[in-house]
Amino acid sequence: MTAMTATSSPPVDHATEVSTVLRAVAVRKAYRRGLWPRRRVLSVLEGADLELEPGEIVGLVGENGSGKSTLMKILAGDLLADAGEVERSDSFGYCPQIPVLYERLTCDEHLDLFGAAYGLDPALLERNRAALYESLDFERFADRRVEELSGGTRSKLNLAIALLHDPQLLFLDEPYAGFDWDTYQRFWTITAERRDAGATVLIISHFITDEERFDRIYDLVDGRTVQR
Ligand SMILES: Nc1ncnc2c1ncn2[C@@H]1O[C@H](COP(=O)(O)OP(=O)(O)O)[C@@H](O)[C@H]1O
Ligand SMILES: [Mg+2]
Asked: Tens digit of pLDDT for each residue in 20-62?
């Protein structure tokens, strides 16, 4: 587990650490824009809490602009909170809302790059790569550069990168926004399989159509999380 603390570090309670994959307490974040005297502060998170256990699919739902992506960036360590505490598993994958891909690299080259960054041995990388091409149905684009790909295929690659090392915890920010119906079904098969194997999946969605697919749902309202 990695502890990240924006303020002073309270002692870690190892008794509650055992089965918790992620624990976020009283997370606060404001964005500051402009310069004095026109300085504006937009407070987005006002003490958000979130706790995830092994083997569950959890939804994080809220209106556009409610702070879902901000909270996920903080959980993934991409953005620093102003206050609060986040503890999470070191084994995680993050699929950001806006894919971070290299226009000039192919799908295969992306998976090579991230496989190396995750420290996967070559045999495991090949196995996981083949399984993801098959389950997301985009092997025919393996040698295509990102600049040639449609939005839907970019989203598949973005998701495949997060899944590549078979992490214990997955952060997925509106992962199926660009998917067609077939890919949407494939997405749920993959996430349910990972969950059943013990992984934890946090999925951001700005509305929920398939509530029964989630084990739990948090609504983000006025900068705080409320469990349904
Ligand atoms: N880097 C930033 N600088 C300033 N304001 C931001 C920044 N990122 C997000 N915001 C603002 O913070 C609010 C929450 O954004 P976001 O977390 O992306 O919401 P959501 O993902 O729920 O749509 C929005 O009003 C957005 O415009
Ligand atoms: Mg968002």
From this structure: 899 999 999 999 888 878 888 999 999 999 999 999 999 999 9
Report which secondary-structure segment, H or E, holds 174.
none
Rg of the Cα atoms in the chain: 18
**CA of residue 29 to ligand 1 center, whole Å:** 10
The span from the CA of 41 to the CA of 216, in Å, is 32
Residue 172, both tokens: 């997925």
DSSP per-residue letters across 164-214: TT--SEEEEESTTTT--HHHHHHHHHHHHHHHHTT-EEEEEESS-S-GGG-
Cβ(128) – ligand 1 distance below 6 Å: no
Tokens of 44: 């987005």
Question: CB–CB of 13/86 below 8 Å?
Answer: no
Q: How many domains does the chain have?
A: 1
143 C-alpha to center of ligand 2: Å?
A: 30
Residues surrounding ion ligand 2 at CB below 5 Å: 68-69, 97
Question: pTM score, two decimals?
Answer: 0.90
For the stretch 176-191, pLDDT in tens is 888 999 999 999 999 9
Least confident range of 18-27, 80-89, 109-118: 18-27
Range of the domain at 8: 2-227
**Closest Cα to atom 17, ligand 1: which residue?**
67
Confidence of residue 152 (pLDDT cuts 50, 70, 90): very high
Please state the separation of Cα 201 from the chain's center in Å. 8
CATH number reported for the structural domain that contains residue 30 in this entry: 3.40.50.300
Helix (H) or strand (E) holding 218, with range, is strand 216-221
